[in-house]
Amino acid sequence: MSSTNQLLRSCVFIAISSCIGMNAYANEVETQLLTKFEAGQYSSKGADSCLMCHKKDDTVTAIFSGVHGDTGRSDGPMAQLQCESCHGPQGKHKGKNEPMIQFGADGNVSAELQDSVCLSCHQDSERMAWHDSLHTQEEISCVSCHSVHTAADPILKRGNEVASCTECHTEQKLDMHKRSSHPLAQGAMVCSDCHAPHGSLSDASLKQTTVNESCYDCHAEKRGPFLWEHEAVIDDCSNCHNPHGAVNDNMLKRKAPQLCQNCHQPDGHQFNVEQPEGVFTSGQSCMNCHSKVHGSNHPSGNYLRK
Ligand code: HEC
Ligand code: HEC
Ligand code: HEC
Ligand code: HEC
Ligand code: HEC
Ligand code: HEC
Ligand code: HEC
Ligand code: HEC
Ligand code: HEC
Ligand code: HEC
């Protein structure tokens, strides 16, 4: 065995054994696995030994059409411990007598242990915030989103992503089908245009540092600077918009004037402004006069009026 292989073997071992070791609630399977890891009970024939029994299962052999089955990749599983890079040492496994690592929500080991297998190769800048993400805390594991026994992992195709995410995120699914929304349902945008699927240091795992920076990516004209600014806009676009969709035009959380009255006096003014008849009952109301709600660069655009 080459020294890279030994390095990898010990990396996988350290990742997994420290994961089991730290977990006071390690189940019986995990404890059994740890013994096999420590004894280094890997098979000498690699995948061939597994395929003696598992080659009739098409879902298993499909891995050879994908990147993880590529024997030519020195950094991939097949150039290393092969099937056992992910499923752990075979030991005396011939079926049910001794377990292998099983993945998925119904897997036989914790989500943390499953993920430590994947992270033994994929711990890089993309997944730096993984451990602190809400997904991790909720035991959503790598394989909740990814499949490896396939020629092509479905979620990596842009056209499939939204459907994968909204299998769990039903609230966002409802929002994106409302009267006004980002073109998520049409496939012209994906969740990961705004969110980092592996977590980030920002609220709501946004790719950018703030909500507003996320929006400026595509709506640069709203960044300003403006001569006459609206504090509510500088503070947070989601004061007024639901980024996933809403029943009101322009993805507004509420209709004006209620939207504005969330923060302003009931009639918007501390003093008397002469108002046209019935202005507060019409849909546009406040914006009839304050038409530049995001900010104005007009010399006489004070109070966001032009
Ligand atoms: C890159 C990690 C990885 C490698 C390498 C790997 N597997 Fe898997 N295996 C998984 C994951 C993850 C699943 C869960 C299903 C999925 O995500 O595709 C799985 C599922 C399975 C299952 C259960 C399939 C089912 O029908 O539910 C078997 C059996 C299996 N693998 C055997 C093998 C064999 C044999 C090899 C070597 C030829 C192998 N695996 C290589 C990660 C891996
Ligand atoms: C002597 C036959 C035999 C060999 C060799 C063998 N397995 Fe298995 N394996 C089985 C049987 C039988 C099952 C139980 C299948 C079931 O319960 O439906 C099983 C179950 C599994 C499972 C759990 C999947 C499930 O659906 O329960 C995984 C993962 C797995 N084997 C991986 C491997 C890997 C990786 C190797 C090689 C290192 C290997 N097996 C070698 C016979 C074998
Ligand atoms: C032994 C190392 C190793 C392990 C373990 C491993 N991977 Fe990979 N994985 C790779 C390599 C190498 C690539 C190809 C990277 C590239 O093309 O830059 C890859 C690519 C991927 C990709 C991109 C696939 C594509 O088609 O471009 C995904 C997603 C992925 N791995 C998920 C996983 C998951 C989930 C697990 C755990 C079940 C896992 N990997 C375990 C080595 C590994
Ligand atoms: C919530 C769903 C989700 C989870 C959980 C998830 N991923 Fe991903 N992953 C994605 C999506 C979507 C992409 C493609 C878009 C992107 O790269 O931002 C991706 C891309 C990747 C890629 C290829 C591009 C890259 O980032 O290098 C790899 C490798 C990968 N994921 C590995 C992992 C590993 C390892 C885990 C667990 C630690 C994991 N993923 C957990 C959704 C997920
Ligand atoms: C245009 C950018 C954008 C897109 C596209 C987007 N989101 Fe969001 N998402 C946000 C912002 C911004 C927040 C923070 C909301 C807030 O502060 O009110 C958020 C919050 C969330 C939250 C946290 C729940 C909450 O209300 O705080 C979840 C879950 C979520 N998004 C899932 C998704 C899913 C799933 C998709 C794809 C269907 C998606 N998002 C697409 C921008 C986006
Ligand atoms: C297997 C179910 C599942 C899948 C698939 C899934 N999520 Fe989640 N996600 C959750 C759970 C559970 C939470 C915890 C909070 C909650 O219930 O909203 C969460 C939380 C989030 C949050 C809030 C994070 C935070 O830090 O506040 C965002 C954003 C999010 N998911 C985006 C996505 C995106 C984007 C995808 C697809 C790439 C995705 N999710 C796929 C289950 C899932
Ligand atoms: C990846 C690019 C992208 C990002 C990031 C983005 N948008 Fe959009 N936005 C679009 C596209 C595309 C449209 C649809 C334009 C059209 O239909 O003409 C749109 C439309 C809108 C609309 C008008 C909707 C309607 O019903 O006409 C609003 C409001 C909006 N975005 C707000 C936001 C907010 C707030 C954010 C930040 C949370 C944001 N956008 C981030 C691309 C983006
Ligand atoms: C104080 C409430 C409020 C805040 C905060 C706000 N908007 Fe708006 N937005 C509106 C209203 C009201 C409309 C309806 C059209 C109009 O009157 O300009 C709108 C319309 C839009 C539109 C579609 C029409 C257009 O002007 O292109 C986009 C895109 C948009 N907003 C993006 C943003 C972004 C990006 C932010 C954060 C930088 C933001 N909005 C913050 C109230 C707000
Ligand atoms: C999230 C709270 C919030 C919402 C919602 C909001 N505003 Fe404001 N608005 C502010 C704050 C804060 C200021 C600055 C302090 C002040 O003058 O009260 C401001 C200032 C203003 C000003 C005075 C600007 C100037 O040049 O002095 C106008 C006009 C205005 N808002 C109109 C609106 C309209 C119209 C809406 C509804 C579309 C709205 N606001 C919604 C918080 C909000
Ligand atoms: C008929 C036109 C008109 C309508 C409709 C209107 N405003 Fe005004 N508003 C003005 C004018 C004019 C000023 C500036 C007063 C001045 O010149 O001193 C002003 C000033 C303001 C200010 C800043 C001064 C202050 O008192 O703090 C806010 C905030 C404001 N309006 C909010 C609103 C809101 C919210 C609505 C809807 C509920 C609204 N306005 C509807 C004309 C209007």
Walk me through what this model shows.
This protein has 306 residues and is mainly α. Helices cover 35% and strands 0% of the residues. The chain has 14 helices and no strands. The structure holds heme C (10 copies). One heme C (HEC) binds at residues 47, 50, 54, 57, 59-60, 63, 68, 77, 82-83, 85-87, 103-104, 143, 147-149.
Please outline the helices and strands.
Layout: H1 3-22, H2 28-39, H3 47-54, H4 58-61, H5 83-87, H6 111-122, H7 134-137, H8 142-145, H9 158-168, H10 170-176, H11 211-216, H12 231-235, H13 258-261, H14 286-289
One heme C binds next to helix 3, helix 4 and helix 5.
Q: What are the bound molecules? A: heme C
Helices, by number, come to 14
Radius of gyration: 27 Å
Mean pLDDT over the full residue set: 90
Biggest sheet layout = none
Low-pLDDT sequence parts: none
Integer count of domains: 2
**CA-based shape:** elongated
Helix content: 25-40%
Total strand count, please? 0
Structural class: mainly alpha
Give the SSE order as H and E letters.
HHHHHHHHHHHHHH
Strand fraction: under 5%
Give the terminus-to-terminus CA distance: 74 Å
Characteristic terms for this protein:
oxidoreductase activity, Multihaem_cyt_sf, 306 residues, mainly alpha, 14 helices, Cytochrom_c_NrfB-like_dom, 2 domains, 35% helix, elongated, binds heme C, DmsE family decaheme c-type cytochrome
Short description, anyone?
Helices cover 35% and strands 0% of the residues.
